Amino acid sequence: MALPPKAGTWRCFEPALEQRLLTLSHYRQALRTAAEQHQLFLVYQPKMELSGERVVGAEALLRWVSPEFGFVSPADFIPIAESSGDILRLGSWVIDTAIDQLEQWLAQGAVPPDFRVAVNVAALQLMQPGFADGLITRLAHSRLPPGALEIEVTESGLMQNMELALVQLNQLAAAGIGIAIDDFGTGYSSLAYLKTMPVSVLKIDKAFVERMDADEQDRGLAQAVIHMARILGCETVAEGVERPEQVALLRTMGCNLVQGYWYSPPLNPEAFVEYCQSQNG
Ligand code: C2E
Ligand code: MG
Ligand code: MG
Ligand code: MG
């Protein structure tokens, strides 16, 4: 039974809100134990060279299959982990696992020697002052050349603390680690800032790619990103490629790499190796 609130105290009258808060803390708690209980794993989506259609890299994507909730999308649980700070621990696990995986693939000869793996890095990770140092040290303790690792950061991730982001990105880039701007074109980064950043890849957001064969403006925007990348000396990766029409357009536009369901969904490590071998011979 609900009691009336005392004057000057705050109460939550909104049952839906209360429920949401409960659910949120419940999710947070579940996510916290997920790592220990092996409910988290990485899948890898191939990145294809558009000229030869060879697999030249992969994006590592985090998956959570919970006994309680089933499959939970990273679009839902990453923001939860960011809000609790758990993304820091989770993010290091992702980096460690992706590095271990690539070492193993290279040792087996399952991927080409110049293969690159990209990991997504959340704003909060980038805002930890020791992030770049930690990553460089971790990589130095591996058998990978620094160029084998790329981080994907979003524009909003960079904008949260431009100065600190720039210091860390400069460190990472100087060590040879690739820097990709993810979902490019959907954030607010200014061209002036972009010029000062040691960016090596622009990833054209799938929103533009999705409609590029039907919408002239989206096609124009995708082309503009490719032009801009060339001016900045960056590569371009188109994400969310689902149809051959998009591939044909991207090829004429001079895009470098493509990623999307047309080629392959994200795959578990075994399936990834099979795909690589079937494509690269
Ligand atoms: P993102 O980094 O932009 O990743 C691309 C998303 O597009 C992935 O969704 C991928 O599965 C999906 N995708 C790939 N090809 C296609 C396609 O052809 N069509 C469509 N419609 N979608 C495609 P996913 O795996 O659900 O991840 C969603 C987002 O969650 C990621 O977006 C990234 O921002 C975040 N995320 C995933 N793993 C991690 C992680 O380890 N750390 C962090 N911080 N964020 C992560
Ligand atoms: Mg990404
Ligand atoms: Mg993206
Ligand atoms: Mg995205």
Helix/strand layout:
Elements: H1 15-34, E1 40-49, E2 55-66, E3 70-72, H2 74-84, H3 87-108, E4 116-120, H4 123-126, H5 131-140, E5 149-154, H6 155-159, H7 162-174, E6 178-184, H8 191-196, E7 201-204, H9 206-211, H10 216-232, E8 235-239, H11 244-253, E9 257-259, H12 269-280
Parallel strand pairs: 2-4, 4-5, 5-6, 6-7, 7-8, 8-9
Antiparallel strand pairs: 1-2, 1-9, 2-3
Helix pairs in contact: 1-2, 5-7
Give an overview of the whole structure.
This is EAL domain-containing protein. Residues 24-280 form the EAL domain. This protein is an alpha/beta fold and 281 residues long. It is built from twelve helices and nine strands. The chain has helices at 15-34, 74-84, 87-108, 123-126, 131-140, 155-159, 162-174, 191-196, 206-211, 216-232, 244-253, 269-280, and strands at residues 40-49, 55-66, 70-72, 116-120, 149-154, 178-184, 201-204, 235-239, 257-259. It has an eight-stranded mixed barrel, surrounded by five helices. A hairpin with a 3-residue loop joins strand 2 and strand 3. The chain is globular, with a radius of gyration of 21 Å. The mean pLDDT is 91. The structure holds ligand C2E and magnesium ion (3 copies). Ligand C2E binds at residues 45, 61-62, 73-75, 78, 94, 120, 122, 152, 182-183, 206, 239-242, 260-261, 266.
